[in-house]
């Protein structure tokens, strides 16, 4: 008997017991679907976390950690901005550095008409916009002219628009920040994603920041390497240059965002593996269900098996027939589980605000694994069927 004939017999047998076949496949559908959901959400969450922490490519965060000797000589050193304009100009001269992103952030108060709110104010240089995309919902973004002229213009967050302006469009309005009049030229889009929190903040050109707060120093600094290959060299040279300019040994250091990204990837992969293993238990239970139903099927079809063997069917042919029937059952469940897992992962990612990454390796693995389940858990029933005595089988009622 050919493979196609065995396959058709298997499909006919499943059609004769539709409800039983559907309930049996349900365990495989849930098992395969659960694994695909976990892996897709895990990979999507990993991609989202990496983008949240690392931002654009080839970036290195520079930070200042004063030594104990520096703190003893100046107890207020941690309250002072660690980066000066001269530092920025010096770093821009390094051949490995593409951009130097500098900003200063402080807490302040903003007033519009009679309402006052505590807000976060960030002064940024032009390179900040090139590395950090600020999506505008209303109005426009800051331009090169705004940075050069030091225009008293600001972009505000959506949360500040809701709290201070009661949801009205504030573009063109004048608000007071640290007792200085500032024109609102744009409103940021609402943040999305599971790690996005609405904060009341505004962004000013750094020239404007200097006028408002009387300070020309920066509190945060990030450098972008010219290429991925120059990332480590750029970070090392930047730290050495800053330590030399400030006459310190190792106070200025860098954080390689690529290393953080790899660390995040390792953590999420371990968590995905653990949760995926738990989801795999349901697939194992589904396999036991298949074996149970196939054992019932062998018992029900004892007389049929006896007739086939009396007509010349070999033990191997009977074994093959029931194995193919078991594989067909699990393969159909696996395919349905793939669609179920893919659809559910898309829905979850839609609400969570991160990408759902269903790779072809996972899909192929789901199909192959479901077929293996069919073979492993179908061997016992198929072996039992092949060992039936033809004479005793024909007597079975």
Structure in words:
With 397 residues, the chain is of the alpha+beta class. The protein folds into 2 domains: 3-52 and 262-395, no CATH class; 66-250, no CATH class. 58% of the residues lie in helices and 17% in strands. The protein has 14 helices and 10 strands. The protein has helices at 3-16, 18-54, 68-73, 85-92, 126-131, 144-149, 158-164, 206-213, 231-245, 257-300, 302-310, 315-352, 360-386, 390-395; strands at residues 59-64, 97-112, 115-124, 136-139, 153-156, 174-177, 180-188, 201-205, 220-225, 252-256. It has a 6-stranded mixed barrel. Strand 6 (174-177) and strand 7 (180-188) form a beta hairpin. The two termini are 26 Å apart.
How do you describe this structure in short?
The protein is an alpha+beta fold and 397 residues long. It has two domains: 3-52 and 262-395, no CATH class; 66-250, no CATH class. It contains 14 helices and ten strands.
What do the pLDDT scores average to?
79
Dominant shape? elongated
Q: How do the strands of the widest beta sheet line up side by side?
A: 2-3-8-5-7-6
Number of discrete domains: 2
Share in β-strands: 15-25%
Q: How do the helices and strands follow one another from N- to C-terminus?
A: HHEHHEEHEHEHEEEHEHEHHHHH
Q: Label the structural class.
A: alpha+beta
* Integer-rounded radius of gyration: 33 Å
Estimated helix fraction: 55-70%
